Amino acid sequence: MSKSIIDTVLDNIFDEEWVGRRGERLTHRELKLVQMLGRKGKVIKNLYLPKDNGETSEIDVVFITQKGIFVFESKNYSGWIFGDEKGKNWTAMLPNRQKNYFYNPIRQNKTHLKWLRKHIGEGIPLYSIIVFSERCELKKVMVESEDVKVIKRDRVYATVRDIWDANDDVLSDDKVEELYISLEKLSNVDKETKEKHIDNINKKIGTKSIVDKKLCPRCGSELVLRTAKSGAHAGEQFYGCSAFPKCRYTKNA
């Protein structure tokens, strides 16, 4: 199917119109545009899926549609990104050649899909989409699986569109609504569940390792390298939580 005029225009202007956005909220905002342009579905943020061992697996964003479920994992790293589908860790290299290592997001989302599949059953297509900030460059990222995409946030619309147009409808509107009702309950968890989720991350990695791996010790989100723009420390670099302003943790670089 050929692209519409609107699709072509959006492909050309998306970078400038949406530059600088961050995190799950921004991926959610991109999906609103997808819905506005006729590709309807239900969006849920921050799903806490139960695991067999009593822990939870948190999914950033899901988009439930007639084509299946799009599962998004958001990353906010800067610099050059290197990685492949099978490796354990990926690398983010900053302009000063400093390297930060982080767990393979494709593997991470594969785990999310595992527990989502256990909750919804077989037969529903799942699409894994890893979304990086526009501030980075996907320098060398190797992906082989057809149902896995690694993109920058300005390509969310185009990526969903391409998958949408290449696949037949498999879910009725009623089934989409049924899945939404079932999964939406898993996003409205209490404070205790969220704190337990973070505690489990801390126990597995350890507080020191969290900092070494550039993860926030308060909420488990990624730490990103930033530069102070004003005040007594203007021009100095520091690590800040990617969940800002929800989490305001900082650490000296």
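(ticket continues) Second input and output from the same batch:
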Amino acid sequence: MTNIAGPGKEISEKTLELNICAEMLYRIRSWPHCDRALWHGMTQHQERHNGLDQLIRNTGIGSSLMLQFKSPWPTSRVDSLYRFTINERQHEALEDLARRYPRAVYYVLPLYTTWEKANNHSPDLIRDTWLMPVASIPLASLTSQPALSSGRHRVDVGRDGSQTVATVHSPTIEADLINAGTFFTDSGNPRMFRDQMDMVPSDALQKWVATRDRNGLSVRFSGLKALYVPQSYALAV
């Protein structure tokens, strides 16, 4: 089989996004008021104006979770160590939301680089996909000692016995991890709807998308998804 994902890596980021987002949608449709939920994929024009790759709509929920997908490095060691990259500019924009809504903004880290593991886990790739709260990585600590060029930082996700742990280098920061399979199963209970004040309201999301960073650039990033955006969200068309 021809490797189309890059040297030393069999599965592309887009492949992981497509499959994991489908699994998320399957679970979300079992939640109250979400049985008709749909993914809304952005056109290139909409991406430029809305700052999102895609969002979930047609639900009865009025606030959002923000998910920034990441893809593991080709050099990741299967089931012992997976490496990801986060960059300071992106993190700064995401932390702007996470400071106000710490339970609403996450990096999504799928632990898949080979077809063998993906084939064995299908249709349940979400079981070894992990959510890392942006709020667990303070920007001030992240920027104090850049580890890679262009303000990029390495995130190592590995196994420690029965635990899956994340470490940001450098400086060394121990970040929180939440299993995505558990999160999207447990979130389908009434507590999720009582906790909507912890998620991003539609007006706050619109204001965030419209902001610019200190260099005058927008907050738009590839791989950014929004869950539960209500139909009233003012999308560019």
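Agent notes: The CA atoms of residues 83 and 191 lie 33 Å apart. Residues 13-28 form the longest helix (16 residues). Closing as not reproducible unless the customer responds.
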